Automatic annotation (TrEMBL):
Domain Nudix hydrolase: residue ranges: 6-137
BP GO annotations: AMP biosynthetic process; ATP biosynthetic process
Domain of life of the organism encoding this protein: Bacteria
Keywords for the protein's UniProt record, in alphabetical order: Hydrolase
Organism: Rubellimicrobium rubrum
Alphabetized Gene3D superfamilies for the sequence: Nucleoside Triphosphate Pyrophosphohydrolase
PANTHER family named in the record: BIS(5'-NUCLEOSYL)-TETRAPHOSPHATASE [ASYMMETRICAL] (PTHR21340:SF0), DIADENOSINE 5,5-P1,P4-TETRAPHOSPHATE PYROPHOSPHOHYDROLASE MUTT (PTHR21340)
The protein's name: NUDIX domain-containing protein
């Protein structure tokens, strides 16, 4: 009997800001793999990094943003990758950012949008992303996250 490997080699980060009384999440339009699709911040874990350190590095590299607070979102994004016949499992982090921080995109993205949850959910291509965004909306934007999930 053959098994499908489960791999955790990357992280996912949802950036959240509160502006003019509204909760908004950041989506980025990809230029490389998944070209043209709208996604949250994501990237591979480098040797010697913890997952949360990867989240901070990827956030800084892809957007120039530095969070005011970083949380484990207490959820993982998961999907099957046919080209590798494996299941990818990505820990999700929630980064709270100041409303006035400017986004500086790197070469991996062509544009960005700050969107309210309903608009963001309608724009992302995968059901796993939609589930993650709804979880963030419920437990972080509209709820009070446990301090046990706070990393920074």
């Amino acid at each position: 009997m053959s098994e499908i490997p489960v791999r955790c080699r990357a992280v996912s980060v949802v950036a959240l800001r509160r502006k003019a009384g509204r909760n908004e999440v950041l989506l980025l339009r990809r230029t490389g793999s998944l070209r043209g699709e709208w996604c949250q911040i994501a990237g591979g874990i480098e040797n010697g990094e913890t997952a949360w350190q990867t989240a901070l590095r990827e956030m800084r590299e892809e957007t120039g943003l530095v969070p005011q607070a970083l949380y484990s979102a207490d959820i993982c994004e998961q999907f099957y990758e046919a080209d590798q016949n494996s299941i990818s499992l990505l820990p999700v982090f929630l980064a709270m950012v100041a409303a006035d921080q400017l986004v500086a995109l790197n070469h991996e993205h062509s544009e960005f949008r700050w969107l309210e949850f309903d608009a963001a959910v309608a724009l992302v291509p995968f059901s796993g992303q939609r589930s993650v965004l709804r979880h963030i909306e419920r437990d972080f934007a509209n709820g009070t996250p446990s301090e046990h999930l706070r990393i920074l």
